[in-house]
Design goal:
20% of the residues lie in helices and 34% in strands. The chain has helices spanning 59-80, 138-151; strands at 9-10, 16-20, 23-28, 31-36, 42-45, 49-53, 83-90, 95-99, 102-106, 113-115, 121-124, 130-135, 161-164. The strands form four sheets. The chain has a four-stranded antiparallel sheet, with helices on one face. The mean pLDDT is 91.
Length: 183
């Protein structure tokens, strides 16, 4: 039995879940999330929890069991708490600004980079060197954060660039001849 798949999903008050074919719709206080799930998985909704069951122990169904449970759990967490990814910008002159709802990045290029948020995603800039990407869909929030990081990934010599909060950047030593003295 799948360790993840057999765990029940707690269903908070105010969250409504419906299934039509291979789509599961989860509605909650923060919005509505729609997930595609395999049609052969059985989803049992009770008053306070959701259980995902697989029809048999075939290799395909064992693989889809935990995936289906995780997708539904992420949808429930998204409509109740939401998801955030925090990014940090390191570098002289590198900064982020909010204009309208768009994110404007200055990352050392000759031009500014404008990032238009997809539907359901919001940007916050508490400081010029910090970006918070938030939304109800975990996959979309992570993808937008990865795209922002991709504009200027952190480089290993000085650590300049955009990186996730808490991400450890492996640093390399510079040129060996730069620190030695001539005799």
């Amino acid at each position: 039995m799948s360790r993840i798949g057999k765990l029940p999903i707690p269903l908070p008050a105010g969250v409504k879940i419906t299934r039509e074919g291979d789509t599961v719709t989860v509605e909650g206080p923060k919005g509505k999330n729609v997930e595609q799930v395999p049609p052969e998985m059985k989803i049992e909704v009770s008053a306070d929890r959701i259980d995902v069951r697989r029809p048999d122990d075939s290799k395909k169904n064992r693989a889809l069991h935990g995936l289906t449970r995780s997708l539904i759990n992420n949808a429930v967490v998204g409509v109740t708490k939401g998801f955030t990814r925090k990014l940090e910008i390191v570098g002289v002159g590198y900064r982020a600004l909010i204009s309208d709802k768009n994110l404007s990045l200055e990352l050392g290029y000759s031009h500014k980079i404008e990032v238009v948020p997809p539907e359901g995603v919001a940007f916050e800039v508490p400081a010029p060197g910090q970006i918070i990407v938030s939304g109800i869909n975990k996959q979309v929030v992570g993808e937008v954060a990865a795209n922002i990081r991709g504009y200027r990934p952190p480089e290993p010599y000085k650590g300049k660039g955009v990186h996730y909060e808490g991400e450890y950047i492996i640093r390399k030593a510079g040129k060996a001849g730069a620190t030695s003295s001539k005799n």
